[in-house]
Amino acid sequence: MGNVYLVGAGPGDPDLLTIKGMKAIQAADVILYDRLVNKEILELAKPSTKFFYCGKDPNKYSLPQEETNRMLVSLAKKGHTITRLKGGDPFVFGRGGEEAEILAQHQIPFEIVPGITSGIAAPAYAGIPVTHRDYSSSVAFVTAVNKPGMSKEAYWEHLAHGPETLCVYMGVKRLPEICELLIRHGKSIDTPVALVHLGTTTSQKTVTGTLGTIVEQASSIKNPAMIVIGDVVQMRQKISWFKEQVAELEMTLP
């Protein structure tokens, strides 16, 4: 029986990979990697390592999760040391919990190697702390897709009255709907919003606005991008530090 490392590769900048994650990559006979894993990180593997792409592209055919699960089990039962490499953190919208559950069911040894999630790293590189004594004492990491069993209206109503900072994953295509629902359920139209495209990479681009203006402001932003909603976005004007490589579209916030 082999073993599996479920590894978070971090948000994009290869220097943000953890040392433990690097060791798991170097130890692997087989690496199954996702779409958002920086290809520079794959170069850390030994020359004999075999690679399998398991990415999920919203605009193209993607390998079904069930097939990825099957590959993990099959390869581990053949005695391989496998590193399942995911962008960000494996347990933050990375389906790492589902894969760990399958491995446990088949009694395959596995280890979780956390990674830096883009919900923290992308705002940080844009000069936005997700918490701040003057602006926010709570933060939620959420997906734009509401969980099964909860209506869309109930989901966003809950978030409109919840944490002071929202970090929204996988939400670019639904940005108009997200803004409309949050405003409808009581969030101020003047609430600051930022979109950080390809955060922590040399292609990072940040656009800021408000719930009332961000849809027009961010019309050029494509996936992948992190949406940050809350007063902490105002801090970008004071502590923006990372030199972005493309022109910014900024709206002065109150």
TrEMBL record:
The keyword Methyltransferase applies. It holds the Pfam family TP_methylase. GO terms for biological process: methylation; siroheme biosynthetic process. GO terms for molecular function: uroporphyrin-III C-methyltransferase activity. This is Uroporphyrinogen-III C-methyltransferase. Its EC number is 2.1.1.107. CDD domains: SUMT. Coiled coil: none annotated. Residues 4-214 form the Tetrapyrrole methylase domain. Keywords: Methyltransferase, Porphyrin biosynthesis, S-adenosyl-L-methionine, Transferase. It comes from the Bacteria. It is an enzyme of class 2 (transferase). Belongs to the precorrin methyltransferase family.
